[in-house]
Specification:
Blueprint: E1 17-23, E2 34-40, H1 41-44, H2 57-72, H3 76-92, E3 98-102, H4 108-115, E4 119-124, H5 127-136, E5 145-149, E6 163-169, H6 178-188, E7 189-199, H7 205-219, H8 237-246, E8 249-257, E9 273-280
Parallel strand pairs: 3-4, 3-6, 4-5, 6-7
Antiparallel strand pairs: 1-2, 7-9, 8-9
Helix pairs in contact: 2-5, 3-4
This protein binds S-adenosylmethionine.
S-adenosylmethionine binds at residues 47, 56, 58-59, 62, 103-105, 108-109, 124-126, 129, 151-153, 169-171, 174-175.
Length: 284
């Protein structure tokens, strides 16, 4: 029997502790049982880039927009992004799998994993995002999803090699150390486990345009596309592949997605997002 979360995390209850739900359950492929447990806030603060509020900058930014996050998926570019993800996830998620949604936000993609029959540990650094995700989660999935408030770069509560898959959608760009994140993903995935990760490539046409507008507007004391102040990391497709290989993954497929530009144009310019599917190599 293999547990999915570490026991030790439950021991320290007091001022420095925040409540999360945790899995006390069993091996990969079996439904875990959920119960309430704790994670030390001090561990959370070890994050690279943690702010004075104790939250990593990307999580703190999303505190302010958490309430509107799910509604944003109802139409436009976010709705298209959701539809784009659905077949990708369907290719990899099997009923009974255990998945982690790293940087789950308000849980929109967590629901997709659950609908495909996986049990999910959903992790985010923004308490408000997590609160909305829990609130909006349908009761049919109670017992199949567990929430952890943590920096995604170091989720001590998750056990080594315990998961079949990890989803990390639009989170890496808020981090300073993508290699630290991939090391953590490699630690928690079992051999042959799948990672679905999305991030902006360098020279994304829409980002270049938005940055230009942002620079211009700032000359007039106006702030536009504020997310660009915290969403800073971009990598070339080749650098992403190399980083994944160094972290012990083989890339299965890499697909460009843009919420604004027509698909035909993506042959000429870089999209806003690259969605990479990768498999952890068995090095045992
Ligand atoms: C752009 S949102 C994406 C949310 C979700 N994955 C989606 O696709 O709808 C980025 C999320 O990452 C979280 N985040 C950013 N940096 C983080 C960090 N270092 N640790 C934990 N969560 C972080 C934010 O709180 C936010 O919920």
């Amino acid at each position: 029997m293999r547990r999915l979360l570490e026991d030790e995390e439950a021991q320290d209850v007091g001022k420095e502790v925040i409540a999360v739900r945790r899995i006390t359950g069993t091996a990969i492929g079996r439904r875990p049982r959920a119960s309430v447990a704790t994670v030390k806030r001090s561990k959370f603060n070890q994050a690279t880039g943690a702010t004075s509020s104790g939250l990593p900058s990307g999580a703190r930014f999303h505190e302010e927009i958490a309430a509107a996050w799910t509604a944003g998926y109802a139409r436009g570019g976010f709705a298209r992004r959701l539809h784009f993800f659905q077949p990708i996830l369907a290719r990899h998620v099997r009923p009974g799998d255990s998945w982690v949604d790293l940087g789950c936000g308000s849980g929109v993609l967590t629901k997709e994993l659950l609908a495909l029959g996986a049990s999910v540990v959903a992790v985010d650094g923004s308490p408000r995002m997590l609160a909305h995700a829990r609130e909006q989660m349908s009761s049919e999935y109670a017992g199949q999803v567990n929430w952890i408030h943590s920096d995604v770069q170091s989720v001590d509560a998750l056990k080594n090699g315990a998961f079949d898959g990890v989803l990390c959608s639009s989170v890496v760009e808020y981090l300073d150390r993508p290699d630290a994140l991939l090391k953590e993903v490699a630690r928690i995935l079992g051999p042959g486990g799948v990672l679905v990760i999305s991030l902006p490539p360098t020279f994304s046409a829409v980002r270049v345009f938005q940055k230009g507008i942002r620079g211009l507007m700032r000359c007039f004391g106006r702030d536009r596309f504020t997310y660009l102040s915290v969403s800073r990391l971009q990598m070339s497709p080749r650098a992403i592949d190399r980083l994944l290989q160094e972290a012990g993954f083989s890339v299965i497929r890499s697909t460009g997605f843009d919420p604004i530009l027509p698909r035909a144009l993506l042959r000429l310019v870089r999209p806003s997002l690259l969605i990479v599917e990768a498999r952890k190599l068995d090095r045992s």
